[in-house]
Amino acid sequence: MAALTQKLSSPPASQPDRQKHHRVPYDDQVTLFPVIESNGLLEIPEKNLKAQSRDLSESGIRLELKRNQRPTPIVKVCFNLRGLKPLTVYAKLIWKKGSTFGFQYIVLDDADRNQIKEYVKHARGGISDLGVDDDQSISPKKTYPFYWGNLSG
Fold it and tell me: Architecture of 16-143 per CATH?
C-alpha cells in the first residue's frame, strides 16, 4: 500500500509529456469521480466534478475544470463518445497547466479501449496509427485479475 500512497500523494509534472498517440478533438462534458484512499482501501465518493474535454487519444484525455476544482491524482472518468455506449475508465493525473489537466488511462476494459481506438481512427479520417504500441494502458483482465484497485503495479 505504500506504493499506492506514494502515487496518490506525488504531484504531477507541470508540463505535458510527449504524446505517444495522436490527439483528436473531443469537446464534450465529462464526469470525474475522485479515487481516494481510506483506511487502506480505495473508495469512490458520490461527489463528482464536471469537466469539459478538449481532446483525447488512445492513451489519455485532456480536460478543463473550473478554476476552483482540483481532481485527485487518480480518478474514475465517465464519458460518452457521441452515440456509442458510455465509457468508464480509471486515469491518473500526469500534468496540469492552469485549469487544464492531462490524464493517462490506467485501467480500461478491452471493449472501451477498442471504442476509443475506433473513435480516434474515425476522427483522423480512417488513418491507422501504424508503428505505435497499442498496449499503452493497462487491461484489468491482464494486470488486475482479482481487484482493480491494486494500482501499485
Answer: Beta Barrel (2.40)
